[in-house]
Amino acid sequence: MIIIVLFLLFAGVLLARTIYYRKQKPTLNNTGYSTADIPEGAAERLSSFIQLETVTYNDFSRIDIKEHRKIEKFFKKNFPSLLSLVNFTKLNDFAYIFRWEGKNRDTKPVLFMAHFDVVPAQDGAWEHPPFSGDIDGGQIWGRGTLDTKSSLLGILESAETLAKGGFTPETTLYFAFGGDEEIMGLHGAVNIVKYFEEEDISFSWVLDEGSIIAENMLTMVSEPIALIGIAEKGFANIRLTARATPGHASMPPDHTASGLVSRAVCRLEQKPFPVFLTKTVRSFLKALIPHVSFPLALVFANLWLFGPLVKLIFKKSPTTAAMVRTTQAATVLKGSGKDNILPDIAEAIVNVRILPGSTKTGVLKRMKKVIRDPRVETAFTDEKDASNPVPESSIKAKGYRAITSAVAAVYPRAVTAPFLVTATTDSRHYKSIADNIYRFVPMVLTGEDLKKIHGFNESISMENYTRIINFFTELIKTL
């Protein structure tokens, strides 16, 4: 009898928690919001912007500085009303700052970020040339349309329209645009942050790229999910190096340099980092409770009990596994230059994305322990490029509320949820001068769309570009 009573009490607690959280759908106040058509000429301006081949390479000598230097002229030519109102600062060819003075100087300013550099475009299956900026089939085509020239111009288009109408933001607003995000932001974002520190400027909140409105990516939720990045994984490239005596491959030693490195990579893959549900992931699952089936809601509402089950499910897929563990991927392998020569040196580079709660030094220490071979040197390729995870930002702060309200205005179908960004953004450099950092661009994308980022046929729909401009318009109005 006692066991039955205890079981009923236990089941009652599970059900009560589930019912409580299923009723917690957020109520958004959209009074006064209205979407607008895309500004005249906006598509053509993005097309022109795409045609600037602002490609960055790790080998800095390969960067076409002439293309980067066209950025300043582009800003001044295309956004005259805004430029007449703001304080415009060019720190270098990779760093631009706009300051739009607000009415209330007693509040901390807000910062919007984006980058105008792009990764190289591989030759091959492009339906339209990657730097054509072609407008065709309801799409604007080219490298940077998704990452992130569209969000940069979306910010400026919205600000230009508001400036023409005589609008002044309540809170001082900064725009910071970098030109080397794809190669770690050491000339752009790092120098911009240094400038802000020297000027004793810090921010209430910062908004950068990082997440999107995901459609048809999560089968348990039928609605699109607006994923607001509130935390970001750390980053490191770690080089594994083994040395040996070179010679003819017909007389090999027991272990070649290539063999030692290969075995080290194998050991790492056989012992991945442990799975852990961070606070951000728990908040993400909690936000989904009102929108999933009751059995799933029961699980998400009671992670204290079902956490091990969720971790087991999440680690089955590379997409969800990245949310719950530090990932390690061997991406570069080098050995002998010829098939019959023993290499004197072999190396592998392992790309690591570090889960919040861990550190880059802790990750390196663990990898050395797993490899357990003193003949394999394990070190950062460049410790300056390695970064620790960015701490979680508040989902109760004004910035998060403003973002979710603007999402509701431009895409009310979307479910809003906090999210862990598994990639790396320039915003990580700002953690010392910002109370909160958020990462989001309101593009409605499918899994197939995401493959276009850094891939073939990158393009943005006119609908998505219009949505971006409207989103920033509504956001600026609420500051």
**Sheet of most strands:** 6 strands, mixed
Looking at CATH, the homologous superfamily of the largest domain is Zn peptidases
Strand order of the largest sheet: 1-2-6-3-7-17
Count of helical regions: 15
Proportion of residues in extended strands: 15-25%
CATH class of the largest domain: Alpha Beta
Question: How does the helix and strand content classify structurally?
Answer: alpha/beta
CATH architectural label of the largest domain: 3-Layer(aba) Sandwich
Tell how many strands the DSSP assignment holds. 19
Instruction: Compute the average pLDDT.
Output: 93
Précis, in short:
The chain is α/β, with parallel strands linked by helices and 479 residues long. 36% of the residues lie in helices and 21% in strands.
Overview of this structure, please?
The protein is globular, with a radius of gyration of 25 Å. Mean pLDDT is 93; it is low at 28-33. Helix 2 (42-50) packs antiparallel against helix 5, helix 5 (149-164) crosses helix 15 and helix 13 packs across helix 15 (462-478). The strands form 5 sheets. It has a 6-stranded mixed sheet, with helices on both faces. It has helices at residues 2-22, 42-50, 65-78, 80-85, 149-164, 189-198, 257-270, 279-288, 294-301, 303-314, 318-324, 360-371, 398-410, 447-450, 462-478, and strands at residues 87-92, 95-100, 110-115, 135-136, 139-141, 173-178, 203-208, 213-214, 225-232, 234-243, 247-248, 327-334, 341-342, 345-354, 376-380, 415-421, 434-439, 444-445, 459-461. The protein has 479 residues and is an alpha/beta fold. A hairpin with a 2-residue loop joins strand 1 (87-92) and strand 2. The chain has 2 domains: 42-213 and 389-410 and 417-478, 3-Layer(aba) Sandwich (Aminopeptidase); 236-273 and 334-387, Alpha-Beta Plaits (2-Layer Sandwich), CATH 3.30.70. The longest helix is centred in the N-terminal third of the chain and has 21 residues, at 2-22. The relative contact order is 0.18.
